[in-house]
Design brief:
The chain contains twelve helices and no strands. The chain has one domain. The chain is an all-alpha fold. α7 packs antiparallel against α12. The longest helix has 30 residues.
């Protein structure tokens, strides 16, 4: 893969990881539509780590506060010592479903991942989820008011994003809104919840690549994808949190529907 293609992939990964339009769907569909080189597992992993850097920078202070409170609670044997510790444990609980589903069903998900038609169909599912979220939007619940059941259900929805075309942020935001959070709070929690999932996915893929010795010769492309993903990811976190203060999710639902239907129509007529 050329450096230009790696930059395009990184920009795409960074933008679509946080906007509710599915990064996996775009990484499958765009190479098929525009004739780009299909990204390797290693390049996708590096781009994922670039988006992880973006969220760590944007929410660095908040994440550090949560981590300190978690560790202090463990040390003091008072796990729910304050709201930050409670939020941290909610993130842990919300990560369990995606970790379990990913480990148990790794083979089937991997088989589906490279299928553009499946990605297009699941983009339509993402559009439906976003519309559902907007239709039942009425919540005012704060993060500190979330229950353990809320955390688990939102995490369960996050596991849907293992399918290409299902947006991780879109599915978790839909579940969070369903459980009573407003748009902006749901998006914030989605980003925080995504840290372990993005970190784990990136590390697992890199470990697999290092084991096969397929990384060193392509480091310029990997670096380009990493930097591009980090920059576009940070910009899109800021954009989405600002957008959702006064705007709906419908624009993202329309985009997912048009891309999904458009690809299916294109392949049918081709």
């Amino acid at each position: 893969m050329s450096i230009i293609e790696a930059i395009i992939l990184g920009l795409l990964q960074g933008a679509t990881e946080f906007l509710p339009i599915s990064s996996s769907g775009h990484l499958v569909l765009f190479p098929a539509i525009f004739g780009l080189t299909q990204p390797s597992l290693a390049l996708i992993a590096v781009a994922h780590l670039g988006t992880l850097l973006a969220v760590l920078i944007y929410f660095g202070h908040e994440l550090w506060t949560i981590l300190k409170s978690l560790l202090l609670g463990i040390r003091q044997r008072n796990l729910l010592r304050d709201g930050d510790a409670r939020l941290g444990w909610h993130i842990v609980v919300g990560t369990i479903p995606v970790a379990a589903v990913g480990l148990l069903l790794d083979g089937p998900f991997e088989n589906v991942f490279g299928n553009p038609t499946a990605a297009a169909v699941f983009l339509l599912v993402t559009a439906a989820l976003l519309i559902i979220a907007e239709r039942q939007l009425s919540g005012t619940k704060l993060l500190v008011e979330m229950s353990w059941w809320d955390a688990f259900l939102i995490g369960l929805f996050q596991s849907l994003a293992l399918l290409p075309g299902i947006s991780r942020s879109g599915s978790t935001m839909t579940a969070a809104i369903w459980r009573g959070l407003n748009r902006a709070t749901a998006a914030r929690y989605s980003f925080l919840l995504g840290v372990p999932a993005i970190f784990g996915a990136g590390l697992l893929a890199l470990a697999e690549v290092f084991g096969s010795g397929g990384l060193a010769s392509q480091w310029p492309s990997f670096l380009a994808a990493f930097v591009a993903a980090a920059i576009s990811g940070y910009a899109c976190i800021y954009f989405l949190l600002t957008w959702l203060r006064n705007h709906s999710l419908y624009i993202f639902a329309v985009y997912c529907a048009l891309l999904g239907f458009g690809y299916l129509l294109w392949t049918y007529l081709a």
